[in-house]
Amino acid sequence: MKFAVITGAASGIGAACVEEFHSHSYKIIGVDVQQPLEISAADLFHQFHIVDIAHVANITDFIAKLSDAVDHVDVLVNAAGIHSGKPIELVSEDDFDRIISINAKAPFFLTQKLLPLMTQGDYSDRSIVNISSVHATATTPLLSSYAASKGALTAMTRTMALELASKKIRVNAVQPGAINTPMLQNGFQKLYGKPGVNVDEMVNNFGKKLPVGRIGRAADIATAVYFLANENNSFITGTSLVVDGGVLSHLSTE
Fold first, then answer.
1. pTM across the whole model
2. Does 146 participate in catalysis according to the annotation?
3. Does the chain have fewer CB atoms within 10 Å around its N or its C terminus?
């Protein structure tokens, strides 16, 4: 029996990862601050835990409960993340701390606290996949704290890969570009929304400007995450896979 812990499992990229890993016969332990947005998705979970992973004490409590229920974990997908588009002058200490806590600190301590379960049993390959962002590499205005958090996560991925290789645990990251999720739509609404403007139309029009001609789908990222986690790809560790529709390949002054 294979177990995958997936954070941010209630919506967006996390929910797509739940579907992808479930389709490959994984037992899913979902983690989020809210219940799944789609009621039908509840059937995909072996367990679902409501946890605010911004606080290490909450992570510790979650792992204690999980340890009573399962004897090992094969895969950890750190998909939970938050976004904030504000000018530097308007970013409060609370804003900054919250973004760093969820996007960078939580993946670190989830990895740390899960190591006992990820090193249990007879295994040849276990995997951690962090959902970073293209903003760790190239970014836009108003995203300084978000880009910082994803840059930290990407750097952390490389170091963890080196440290955990001796335990037969691989650590990789996926760097998504513009993916049509609730977080992206909320971000577009805050940054560019105007009365009478349809957010879906705005997102789709943005997608048409990408080299591939469309906005990304959460399933595009989930497929990449499973690729990295799959034991058939056990020679891949410490890398960041960019899945962005060609954005980082496009030199532009726009």
1. 0.95
2. yes
3. C
